[in-house]
Amino acid sequence: MNKKIKNKLYSIFIRYFILVLAAIPNFWIFYLIFTPLTVYPVYFILSLFFEVSLTGNSIGFLGSFSSVEIIEACIAGSAYYLLLILNLSLPNIKINKRIKMIAFSFILFLIANILRIVLLSAIYISKPQLFDITHKLSWYFGSIILVILIWFFEIKSFKIKEIPFYSDLKFFLKYVK
After folding, report:
1. Total structural domains within the chain
2. I want to staple 15 with a disulfide (CB 3.0 to 4.6 A). Which of 36, 55, 88, 151 is the partner?
3. Following DSSP, what letter does each residue of the chain receive, concatenated?
4. What is the CA radius of gyration of the chain?
5. pLDDT of residue 75
6. What is residue 5's predicted lDDT score, i.e. its pLDDT?
7. Which residue range is the domain that position 17 belongs to?
């Protein structure tokens, strides 16, 4: 086996090993990192428009008995994981570029998620009758569409030519023959 093939096999092993590690147990690493990165900016932005207090991951709206709890589902660890999967399942990407790509996609999703939670919180306080439908629509369709849009934007921005998983599978099939 020549050195080029060994390097490609090593790259595949490392990339998919990282994906397995990131998923165990239950995406905890994403929640550890992105919970405070989501909760504090949401609290700050809401404090510009409402009188709010922060207790843990719960934002209370003063003057009313309402509060918004930012739970793990709001943080969307699985969406970050999907973006990581898409990024790490691409072969032939230099480490610096891969780190930039992952950071780019995570930051875009984080910003969009913060804005989503702020908007939903404002709807919850000012138009509670609209909250359930907007929450469900943003949860079921918005997050999926957002990840897809971020991925396509990333493909264009970083000029990605490979196809996730398929390019690795193609290499394996060629190597086996």
Report:
1. 1
2. 88
3. --HHHHHHHHHHHHHHHHHHHHHTTTTHHHHHHHHHHHHHHHHHHHHHHS-EEEETTEEEETTSS-EEE--HHHHTHHHHHHHHHHHHT--S--HHHHHHHHHHHHHHHHHHHHHHHHHHHHHHHH-HHHHHHHHHHIIIIIHHHHHHHHHHHHHHHHT--S-TTHHHHHHHHHHH-
4. 20
5. 94
6. 84
7. 3-176
Relative to beta strand 58-61, strand 67-69 is antiparallel
CB burial string 35-58: b at 16+ within 10 A, e below: beebbebbbebbeeebebebeebe
Q: What pLDDT, in 10s, does the model give residues 83-110?
A: 999 999 999 999 999 999 999 999 999 9
Joined tokens for residue 136: 């469900």
Please name the residues in contact with 124: beta carbons below 8 A apart, sequence gap of 6 or more: 66, 68, 131
